[in-house]
Amino acid sequence: MIAAFLGKDDYRPATFNDVNAFFAFLLDAVVNLFVLSALLQIFGFPQDLIDNRIIPGAIIGIVAGNLLYVWLGYRRAKRTGNHDITAIPLGLDLTTTVGFTLSVIGPLFLMLEGQLGDPAEAGRIAWYVGMASTIWMALVKLGASYAGGFIQRTIPIAALVGSMFGIAIVWLGANAIMGIFELPHIGLIALVVMIFALIGGRALPFNMPGAVVAIALSTFVYYALGLSGGLEGLGYSFHAPMMQGTGLGLPAPTLSWTSEFFGLSLNYMAIIIPFGVLIAASSINIVAAAKLVDDDYQPGNVIRVDAAATAISAMFGGIIQTTPYFGHATYKRMGARIGYSAAAAGLLLVGGVLGVISILIDIIPSAAIKPILIVVASDIVRLGFGSIPKDHGPAVMFATMPAIINYCYVNVSTLFGHVNNALAPVRQGLEGARTAAGQLVDTSTLHAAQMVPAHWMNEYILLGAMARGYILTGLLWATIVVFLVDRAHLKASLMLVIASACSYFGVIHSVMENSAIYFPWQLQSGMDGLQPGALGLPQIFAGSYFLAAVVVLALYLMRNMGMKSVQAGAAE
Fold first, then answer.
1. Radius of gyration for the chain, computed over Cα atoms and rounded to the nearest angstrom
2. pLDDT per residue over 367-380, tens digit each?
3. What element of type H or E holds 20?
4. pLDDT for 511
């Protein structure tokens, strides 16, 4: 590969088209690093651990994973003769970044801080648990990698690509549009330029890269309006860059995670395993999508590289697993090869060590970056429409619905949490207070769950259960639809039985707020916020799926009976 980069063989690892992909991918990868940092700061996590161990560890994992994917792409290009092959991009997984930080690392830190009275010691132990948990996720993905080929051969393309639709339309598309319209005077400038150049495929003057022009132009407008007072006149706030974060920070490997590998991290296996399985399933989807544009990767290899990157990240201090990114289709359409990923990895490493990455994110407004996610979402949808058989179109809708439900639940749940937080000081202020009649004030009613109609609360509990495990849910639903459309009744019945088992143990439709899996007979009201109305849902879901499997099997057994009766009627 070194010879290729030096121009000593006939393979060109990069062209001018890699420039656009380089900037788009670099910004996409960097944003999640600062989401992680911001979430940890909410809990008061020690800043030195964030800046000097956790973020550098994440960067090392991202760099290692991308370089391994570059090697994988180069090897496939030489073996197949497909010199246009595009490297699979890799970064931090946003779902794990948010979910694991909010459900494990943050709460664990607060609990330990209360017990120990020492934020530094509490942060250190929580960090160890985070690293150990990430190693466990890597092992889960490593195990799943040996089933990747089987899953890709067994699951219909409509189900694999369809579950990507949900992520694209909701978490990349709708969520990014919301971010753009939070500052529309800036975001829409970047969006229209990217639509013109990257989605529409039009050349800009002097062949300038569309992503760079869009971000540079919208950032210029942001500062022009901000410094002139125009943003404030429009009702928006202007944040001048702090220009902090420079300084040499060399990542260092550590074995500190071993102290909690068989310790506190085992308490979170019900969360760790689903997160690992989720990313393995997403990786298979990405490989399936890559194959549709003639980049023929082996799913097992792709998952194993991701598992290695996750493990390397943890060994250098990272606490969040990595994942292949859905942006592969976008960078492929841009004409990128493997150079964009190698260059982004190199700059990410240097910029992370020197602190330049934090300054870059500080300077560029988020509304200018969000349109990149719209471009990625558009290419996933474009890819799907051209690859799915016409009869399998309805399966895509079923694959997309769980993601929409998940998006709704996350936003409603966030609002629910804000209401509870606002009521907390009121409850504390009324503790021990008495009414005019001398009775103690009932503060239990000052809770969001008590202030909404009972039927709404039941719908909220159901919404949460339907939202959890949404990628696997969409995959199962779409597969069942495809098998029914194709008259593969036995396969459809089997998938319904699998869905029944998954829902019974919380792999999908988990009733736990942290998406944990469980043994239903051990569930108790109040356990990790478990509502009484959710206790019977595992049996209801499992029984419903199983009953549906029996009905499909009955339809299969009766198919010949129906044909005979129709033929007999025609003969008469």
1. 25
2. 888 887 788 778 77
3. helix 18-42
4. 92
